[in-house]
Write a structure and sequence with these properties.
The complex is a heterodimer of chains A (369) and B (270). Chain A has 369 residues and is an alpha/beta fold. Helices cover 41% and strands 18% of the residues of chain A. In chain A, helix 11 links the parallel strand 16 and strand 17. Classes of the chains: A alpha/beta (369), B alpha/beta (270).
Chain lengths: 369, 270
Amino acid sequence: MNTAVAKPSMQLLEGATAIAESAILAGCRFFAGYPISPFTPLLEHMSRALPENGGVCINAESEIEGANMALGAGATGAMAATGSCGQGLALMQETIAEAALNETPMVVFNLARNQQDYFQATRGGGWGDYRTIALAPKDIPEAVEHTQLLFHLSRRYRAPTLLYGDPLLAQTRVGVHLRRIEFDELPPQDWALDGTGGGTGESRQIWTWAMGKATNPGLGPDGHWQQVAAKFDRIAELEQRSEQRYAEDADTLVVSFGSAAKFIEHVVEELRAEGHRIGWFRPISLWPFPGPALAGATAGIKRVLVFELNAGQMLEDVRQYARDRDAIRFIGGVSIHESGLSYGPLLDAPEIRARILAAIAEDSTRSTS
Amino acid sequence: MTQELRIVPTDRPPADGKARKVADFRPSLMLGEHGLCPGCGEPVALRILLETLQDLGIVNNSIGVVGHGCYGSFVRIMDVDVLQCLHGRAPSCATGIKRMRPQTAVFTMQGDGDMVNEGLQEVLHTAARGENVTAILLNNGVFGDTGGQQTATTVLGQRTKTSIEGRDPGLHGHPIPVADLVASLDGVGYVARGAVGTAGSIARTKRMIRAAFESQLAGEGFSLVEILTMCPTGWFVGAPQGPDYLAESMEQVFPLGDLRARPKPSGAGA
């Protein structure tokens, strides 16, 4: 299938396929990955579709190799990506940090098994003062948009960027409208390695330590890493993304991200229809975390319920920014399918509804006793 | 016809300005002095590598991928586009570069700690994939940058800071002849092992590097030149003893020569 030419009509696509096609529309020309569920279909589709569109896809022999191949491709100025699920991304942490510190653009797709990789996505496990722009789409159409946005941001900031998805994004089929999104023009990629710098005295160098050449010294690690840290400070200001509904007249605000937020939207609509003063807040960028927006949304809120399918990871960020820390209740938890490959029973509207109502009831009991 | 050799007094600059320090005879791609230890073999290897790029006329169509070790500092003096990559990962980074820039000559430079310890699987996979890149292994059998610890190529009996009584196979296992492993793989165009201990071995090694790049330019697949280099500091011998130690220890375990010759052009057979 060659769908990378713009097709205006709606297509029924599996999420992983839609993400792959969107990446190709964005200009992705290099992909390397190692099979692992539920990421595998993204790799499989790339292996078919990228060569048809003038690109290269390598079934890498390990996640470490795949990530470093993407780094190498990115260093030439090509749009490059790699991916896995959280287990594989664990192996890629050193490379993601390296790309952040040597300023190589690349996109990393975490089609994860659940939401237990929030810390991995937002803190990372590499060394050094680096951050990773991490977007968590709530559904496949948004993942298609985020894919192209992440390639753009990666090049705009010369930094690795991350899409944090899950089995629902990877393996569900929905109608998708695939089109190329146009972004602002990017600065020239005069840093990219093309081999022509040799012998000029001004050959290029991509190096985390940025010491430069003997004839043209660089900033060195101290100056370079300060500059990189300042860049991430700017990104933290400029690239916060979030969405919220009913916060202005709610007593209860539910904070959730990714697929879980889609469930929360549904349950909140149900509860509002029944007269509950409830709303929701969704960080779209997990890093930078939309802290000021959350602070605004939680002003005047009696209880802030945090729902995520892990032991309470985003909870730490909510605690940093919610107006009243004492109003925070955690209603999520670890919930894994017996296969280990997807969510358990907690990601279910009736279960979520019950937890929200229980939290509200508990507060009422507490305030009346 | 013989030319009279004019003796230039050394207590003042030559009047004609022609006499120079030996260091000034470096290839123009070397932007400065290397700063490594006296007697180190790695700068010699760098020099013949850079000279080869010039000889082949690919100076401004080459990208180097350099790993971590003493030679890592060479990225400051190589006038070539360079990616300095993570320890062990140069073959993978080179893969990404070459696939996106197939018309560019792509080479890696790794030490034995980088290639054979940290990144053994990367070099084997890259070779078996037949990636059309040239790998240069600077093998001195020791972690030089960190002060002389055992690597996967340390020869039996060699004293290192982590095998102070000498490498004992019962305790420390055996050295890995990585070039021989690579030479055994399909997907490989050319593999050789050279050294920089003597003028003769330097000249032969330079021809090996040239053959490796010619193999890459002909699209024959992965090429590797392992270069045995002196590390008197890491070997705990005097700088002048480096070449002899190299010949008596490493060259006995890692014999020099072509390990996999370039494929003969079709129709060129006898």
